[in-house]
Structure formats: C-alpha cells, structure tokens
Predict the 3D structure of the following.
Amino acid sequence: MSPRPLGRRIAAASSGLIIALSLAACTTHPSPEVAVRSFLLAWQDGNHAEAARHTTGDPEEVERALTDVHDQLDLASVRFDLGRISTEGESANAEFGVTADLGIGDPVWNYTGQMSLTNGPTGWLIDWSPSVIHPDLSEGERLAVSYEIEDRGQILDRSGEPLVSADSVTAFGVLPADMEDKEAGVTELAELLDEDPDPLLNRVRSAPPEQFQPLVLMRDADSALLREAGSISGVQTQEVEVNLSPRAAPFVLGEVAGTSEHRVSSRVAGSYQAGDTVGLSGLQNIFQQELAGTATTQVVSLGEDGDQTDVLESWEGVRSGGIETTLDLATQQAAQNATEAMPGDGYVVAVDTTNGEVLAAANASDSAADDAAFTGSYAPGGIFTMVSALAALESGAVTADSAMPCGFQSEVGDQVFTNPSNGFLAENPTLVRNMTYMCTVGFVDVAPEVGADALAEAAGQLGLGGDWQLPLPVSPGTVEIADGDAELASAMIGDHGVQVSPLSMALAAGAVADGSWHGPTLVREEGPSPANANELSESHLEVVREGLRDAVTIRMPEVNVGEEQVYGQAARVEQDDTALHWFVGYQGDVAFAVLAEVDPEMSQWQQYAVTAATSFLNGLANGVPETEGVPGTEETLPPAVPGTEGQGVEGEGLEGQGVGTDLSGN
C-alpha cells in the first residue's frame, strides 16, 4: 500500500505571492490582483475564514469547503503562484498555479487553477464555485484520493517454485460513508487494536467514502475482537490473503509484517500507511520495493452519491514483482530436515560447485533472526586440513608420494599437539593418509616448511577471507596468522587465527570439487560475486580429493548415501565452551558444510555433523516431504540416520587407538 504521512499540519510554504502587509487589512479591493492575492494568501496559510471574506459565497460554506479540501486530499501543504489576470469592464479572470503536497511518500499535485471576479460595491470579489478549488470540479462534487494497491510479490526458488506461503489475515477497516463520526469511530477502533489513530484518520479523511479502507492487518484475530470491532459504526473486517510466511529458509527470506505488527513504523526506515506489508528482515527487507511495489495514486472527483465522476490526476505506481533466488526447494528441505537431530544450534549450507549459487541455507532454530550460517565466525578445526593440504602441496613441502610422518604427539614452541584420538600412523604415511585419518600432528610438523604466506594464499584461493558478498550479510572468514611457530602450527589445523562461516566452507569445498572458486549468488538478478581469477592446480586438487574421498570411505562410510561418491572431512573443535562438530564436503555438483553446536559433555559418543550430513544426503537422494522440512510444522520428523559412536578405525598401518570420527578437541 502507498506510504502516507503519519502526522499532519497545514504548512505555509514559501510562495511566489508577494504581498504587502497592509493588504491583509483592506476591507475593499481596488483591483482584481489585490483580491486574488488576498484570497490565495489566506487559503495558503490555512486561514479559511479570512479567505472566504474575499469571495461572493456564503462565508461559512466557503470556509467549510476549503477546510474539506485539506481533509479530502490529506494535504501536508499547499502553495499558490499568481498567474495571468485579464480584466474586461467590471469582470476579470485570474489564473494561478497550485502545488498541493499530498504527503510524505505521496505525489505532489501541480495544476493550474482559475477564478472569475466581479467588481461590486465592496470592490473586487472572487465569484465562488467549486471550480475555484479545481477547474473540473462541479457543484455538489468533492475531491478524494484513491489508491490501487499492489499485491505483495513472491520469492521464488531456482525453478520458479514459490517460497512464501499466502496467509489469510484479517483486514480491519472502515466504510467512511457508513461512519456517524469518522474521528470518534476511527479513534475507538485504534484504541481497540492498540494503534495510533492519527495515520488511520488521515487515510479515512482522504478516501472515497464508498470504498472499504483497510487500516490494520492482523493475523489470528479472535472472535471477541471481531465482534467488538464490528460494533463500531462503519467498521468492517475482510479476510485477505497476503504472501507472508516463508515455506523454507526463514532467515534468508525474512519476516513480513503489517505496519500494525511489532510497531513496524518505528523499526523500518521509510513512511508507510497503516495496513502496509513491510519486510522486516532477509530478502523481504532488502527487496521491499520490488516485492511491495507502490500504489497507483489518483485524485478523483466524487458526486453527491459517492460515485467517481472523473480522474483529475493520476500517478502510475510501480508494479510488485517476484524475486528469483538460486535456492532449490528440495535441497532446502533436505537441509532443514538434517538440522532436526541437532541438539542445539546448527546449520547446513549447500552451494552449486559449478557456479557458487546458494542452493540451501538452514538453521536448527528455525529463527528468522539466526543468520550464523552466513555470518557466523567459527574455528574450523580439522576440516581446515583440506586448505592446509593444498598449501602443503603448493609450497612444495610435500608431494603426493612423499612421506608425511604422523606421530602421536608433537611439541612446537611452547605448545603440545596431540592427535584427536591419541593414535599415530606407522611406516611412512602420505598426505592422503594423513587426511584420511585426520592426523593433525602430521600437518603440525610440516607447518614450518609450508609457511604462513603459503597457507594464507591457499585459503585465499578457496575464497576464505576474500572480498565477496551477498544481498544479505555474510562473513567470508578471516585468516590472520600471528608470528611464531606454535601459532603457524595451530593455524594449519584450524585452531588459531582462522575463522570461517558454514557458507565460506561450503564455497571452499565447491572450489576443491570444481577446480576454481566461484563467488556466491543468492538472487539471480544481482549476479555472482567476483570469482577468483586463479585456477587451482588440478594435480594438487586430485590429491586433496583423494584424501577427502578416503576419509568418507574408510572413516565415515555411512555418509556415502546416493549414487555418487561423497567427499568430505569431519572434525570436532571447541570454541567458547562449545563443541563445534563439522562436516564439509561435496557430492556431484553439490558442496555443503554442516555445523552443529553441542554441549561438550554430551558430544563424546556421537558426531552430530556426520549424522546431519548423512541425513542431508539421504534427503537429496530420496526426497523429504515438505511438511517434514518446513519450519513451523508440527508433524514429528523421522529420526536422522545414526552417526558413528566413538568407533575406532583399524586401517592398514594404524597403530594405537584409531583416529575415528569421534574426534576430541586438540
């Protein structure tokens, strides 16, 4: 609905009318020019009784007519400029320019008025008729402002599937012609609904009296409230459908409210008319103008029966439209379903490996305010080894075939590093084998040969810490490695100087899968963020991919759901007294990151990210009924696929306790 001012006063703007102060005291007008100037100045100043004195009409009727014009147009101000005056004997005709400000956010109406004058015993006076207000206004007609409201547009997934449900809401409004006392009735309704009556009165005063005027949109209005509202003269209610509730990804799509909900006018920039729908967050807020459009506004004349007789001016509104996102509803439902088994906060983000398009973004809280899937800043722990493995290869510290020892423990500087499951790899393990069994000590030991610069460069090639963005807030992560051997060693295993978000890690996994990093895209018309210009070394990536494939095949075979091989890495790291369970990987053209925030005391026997990743891939392969994947539904979801529970992995050459998927923090 069209924005309208929330408070009104008659404002006298600066004018082209230059008038001597002495003229205001004149009781007779020696010339048509003096009469016209005196009339227009008084009208402009809101002194309608004084303006009426300069006309031939009944003073009370003229005063009432001029006052009604301000209410009928809901004017913020009106300004006049004197035009050409022609005189013939005792008659004259004057033209004047009118600038009528219809209010904040509404148009300014400019038109040319005209009036005839007659010279009589008291001097020159304006011949009063409604045409003085507007040349096309006839006897018995009045002005009104009419709006043709746009329906709120839809947000679509990549296939054109609607992502927002049309909710049935109650529109509380009035039929002005049926109100015995507009001010009293609207005020009573406003008090009943806990609303400010002033903007509602502005709307009603300027509206065509025979048209229903929706003033307040309300969800879940109870029968008692409906009965009480219906007892007020002229008040009516109608059930209308408005695109309000997200079917999926609530923090991405965002909340929508009517201006009556949550005191929207005090929280959202811009001026809105009572009853408007306003995006409070997410894409609904970012693309408010595109989704809401603007009303077509018309100044019309109405006859005595309230029917429209003419359109005096019209301003075409902006049509509301749909926003096409890159989200895929089926993938989103699988992601949302995967978060159901998480014991606390958690996130799943999926992207297209070929172009960086965001396919899904889910949170376990179902909250529209929880955007940590995009903006979170988390320690990656062992999943960062896919980055440090690439750095090790790029720097020449190791090759695909060279030995990369994996001891039980290593001391660097003043810090002792121990493998997550207290094991070690016998003989001469390679980089692939270190990745397979999450041998963090092996990565710590090669840190000096890799160096901080090579590690930061590899992270940048995978988009971490880069300069990329979406329409919504995002965190590309940070890679800030402090001086010192221990700090570098810790950064190699994602424990120091490295912070990532689930989105940034999903994009990094997509780069490993595709061979180059792609900036993310969420809304098609916005286009992608700049892609990394550097192509990654295919031979080095093949080594990293082999390590990710073997990690799944050997340590986490339950994740291998579907027809295509799954590549990935799982890890557990503690941050701020919270255990972070990660799984990052890809299958086919879908790269994804799973993060579960878990109480450390309850995280010893299950890797929740592995469980959620298995559930997600199962949903991709077999589908998830919408009622099971949509936030806010009450159906009981099926249990997620069980994860590993502290299992050791007895691989060839593995000595001591196996380095399995139940990973304790470093």
